[in-house]
Structure formats: C-alpha cells, structure tokens
Design a protein that fits this description.
Layout: E1 5-11, H1 17-33, E2 37-43, H2 47-57, E3 61-64, H3 75-83, H4 92-99, H5 101-110, E4 118-121, H6 123-129, E5 135-139, E6 149-151, H7 154-163, E7 170-174, E8 179-186, E9 189-198, H8 205-209, E10 214-217, H9 224-241, E11 246-254, E12 262-269, H10 279-286, H11 291-300
Parallel strand pairs: 1-2, 1-3
Antiparallel strand pairs: 4-7, 5-6, 5-7, 8-9, 8-11, 9-10, 11-12
Helix pairs in contact: 1-11
Length: 305
C-alpha cells in the first residue's frame, strides 16, 4: 500500500525561524513514526526553490509548521491554494486576520469578547498623547512575544521611545494585571487551558523557549464558571475568524478582586508552536492526546480554501 506523502514546511523568513525549525522537526518525526512518507522543506528567501521542491515531491498534504510572517499571515496559504495543495491549519483569510492583532481585537469586541483598551500608535502619537501608565506596547503582526514591552514608569517609556523605529506602529494597550492564560481550540471544540507562570518577568521570547524558565499549569486552575467562560470566548474568536485545525487564544485573568475576576482577550495564534516547550501539546497531553495523535488529527482538517 502506497504511503501518503506529507511535506512539512518549516523555517521561513520571519523572526520566528528557529522556533519553526524546532516545530517542523518535531512534527516530521511524529509523521515518520505514524508511517507517512515525509519530506522536510526549509522555506528560505528563494521561493522558486520551495515551489520546485513541492512540485517534484507532489505531496498529498502539506503540514504548515511555519510561524510568523509569510507563515501564518495568509501569504503562504494563498500560494498553496493556487497550487491546489491541501494544507493544515487555518486558510488564507483567517490567517491574515489572525496575524493582525488590532483587527482581531475589533472582531472579538464585536462578538462580545472583552479586550484590552488601546489601539495602534506611532512614536509621534505616543509623544503627544501620553498613553496612561502602565501599558503594553507590541508589534501588531509578530508572534512568540517578540519585542513586547511592559511600560510601568516614565523612564521605561523614555527608553521605549528612544528605540521605537521611525514610522512603525505598535499596538499599545492598557496593562492588565493578573495571570497569563491560553486556551486551545481543536477542530471547533475547546481542547483545554493552561496557566503560564514564568520564574521571572513575563512570558517573553526567552521564557517561552528556555528549558525550566516557565511552568505550565494544565488545566489552568480556575473556578468552573470562569473556565467555561474563557473556553467559550476562545471558541467564539476561533469561529468568528473562520479558523480551522488548531488555534490558541491568549488571555489575562485579573483576579485582583476575587469576587469579580475579569477575563481579557489579548490575541489569537492560528499556527501554535509544536516544540518541546509549546503550550498546545501540553494541553493535548492533559487530555490524553499524545503528540503524534495531535499531529495526525491536524492532517484530517487539511484542505485548500
């Protein structure tokens, strides 16, 4: 019996290249254990080489292990649609919207999901308007908590403004105190939640991908009604964007007032990491879904738009 051919695209040209390579290697190993004919393709600036490798291999399905720009922003998905190659994770439109944090927030707000106050700002606007402290400033279309700034003091604000690239817009939001939570949705069902507890600072790039720097509490220790509500919010955003396969929504859970805790949506990841330190495999494991089974499940939803 002929083996189904799976191309795993990884690497890419974004700042998350190294994380994507780790995801791709993990996925490839799982697919080989599952008995598929697997080809790893490292996407670089040479797009013609990528297209040539795909054409020569003629995969039945492409597993998208890319992260960041040109991986989960709709562009690679549009190319695969044109090549009529079924692929995992969300389609072009959902990926494009999901990568745009500001646009995703607007949609979340429209469907009744609470979001952090704030919007896109230029350096010049921040100098004039004086956004109230504390706040969070982050790129609108990057993942893995890259270049995220929590600004609590005027000195920290001055330091941010000095390194703020001219003409660049950051998404500036009111800082929400409390706990860092993520909820995974798999095939239009809430898979589960996790609380992220860094040993120091916040859940930035270093804490995400350094062994021993962060604890994952799975499932997130929440009152039952709040666990249900945060799951409903994640599923609502997943469906409103038209996501498929797996997504992961990030939230803040402010329980400063124990009698009236607040859940605030931050962003969605339409192509979550599959590294040894990633959240979705941990959530799946808590539901007795092995890494290999999770990878196999994602293949079932693979298609073109």
């Amino acid at each position: 019996m002929k083996k189904e051919k799976i191309a795993v695209v990884m690497g890419g040209i974004s700042n998350e290249r190294e994380i994507s390579l780790a995801s791709g290697k993990g996925v490839s190993s799982a697919l080989e254990r599952l008995g598929y004919d697997v080809k790893q393709i490292d996407l670089t600036q040479d797009l013609s080489k990528f297209i040539s490798e795909l054409t020569n291999f003629q995969p039945d399905i492409l597993f998208n292990a890319l992260h960041g720009r040109f991986g989960e922003d709709g562009r690679i998905q549009s190319l695969l649609n044109n090549m009529h190659i079924p692929y995992t994770h969300s389609g072009a439109k959902a990926s494009e919207i999901g990568m745009d944090k500001s646009r995703t927030k607007e949609i979340a707000k429209q469907i009744g999901v609470p979001v952090a106050e704030g919007n896109l700002k230029t350096k010049e606007q921040m100098q004039i308007e004086q956004f109230p402290l504390p706040y969070v400033a982050k790129p609108n279309d990057e993942g893995s908590s890259l270049d995220v700034h929590i600004v609590r003091t005027e000195d920290e604000q001055e330091a941010l403004l000095k390194q703020w690239p001219q003409g660049m817009k950051y998404l500036v939001e009111t800082y929400i105190p409390g706990r860092e939570l993520s909820v995974a949705v798999l095939n239009n069902q809430v898979l589960g939640s996790v609380e992220i507890v860094p040993k120091t600072g916040f859940y930035d790039y270093t804490n995400k991908y350094t062994d021993g720097q962060t604890s994952h509490l799975v499932p997130a220790p929440l009152p039952e009604k709040d666990a249900e509500k945060i799951g409903q919010y994640a599923l609502a955003v997943h469906q409103a964007l038209g996501c498929r396969g797996v997504s992961r929504c990030d939230f803040r859970y402010d329980d400063t007032n124990k009698d009236d805790p607040k859940i605030v949506f931050l962003e969605i990841n339409t192509n979550p990491g599959m590294t040894p330190f990633s959240l979705v495999p941990d959530i799946a494991k808590s539901k007795k879904i092995t890494y290999d089974a999770l990878v196999n499940e994602l293949l079932k939803e693979a298609r073109c738009d």
